[in-house]
Amino acid sequence: MVSCTRWLQGTVAGSGPIENDWLATSNAAALARLHAAQAPRQIPVWRRLVEDDFCDRLEQSLRRPWTAGPYGEQARRAIAARISDIRRWTASYHRLCRRASDSPWVPTHGEPHTANQVITESGVVFVDWETVALAPRERDLRTLVDSGYADLVAPDWAMIAMFDVEWRLDELSQYSTWFASPHRGTESDRVALEALFEELDRPDVFAD
Fold first, then answer.
1. What is the per-residue pLDDT for 45?
2. Per residue in 75-89, pLDDT tens?
3. Domain ranges of the chain
4. How far is CA 58 from the centre of its chain?
5. pTM for this structure?
6. Topology (CATH) of 11-201
7. Distance of alpha carbon 200 from alpha carbon 61, whole angstroms
8. Which of 66, 126, 147, 195 has CB atoms 3.0–4.6 Å from 76's, for a disulfide?
């Protein structure tokens, strides 16, 4: 499938947290317009990313050495040390997913972080729409909440918790597959290993 769009004149907002009130306010306004829009008939619908048997499959993989690349065993030991926490996060995620049907579902971007924001003369424009889906609005609010601007969007904190832990579990799923598989110790592998450690060690900011 090929998509086309017109050239957009502007500046990418960044690649980290929102660091000023103007950008935060512009983000909140742009997301409010998106979430109030009529959903297209063919819009994808958000579905949970992590299945009930995720931890069982992960534990089974952890029983065998990950020797297909230089970082495999380091990654395996780090994940194994937190498997009880991963089970807790997974149980929390599924509990929160059952509550999601009680929230209003709206068109969401999916990844409206600063790297997907362009500052133009007319304001903030979101780009990279491949993750668009009908979902609770909190799917789009993590960047604002993480940057300390939750008061601009008045989120449902249970849904913030759900999407936060969904991100964490999906990252752990991808990195476990990565390091159990052949890899050569490239710069990308090193960055991925650091990202794995970060997801394992960061606080449960939005515990339900």
1. 97
2. 999 999 999 999 999
3. 11-201
4. 20
5. 0.90
6. Aminoglycoside 3'-phosphotransferase; Chain: A, domain 2 (3.90.1200)
7. 17
8. 66
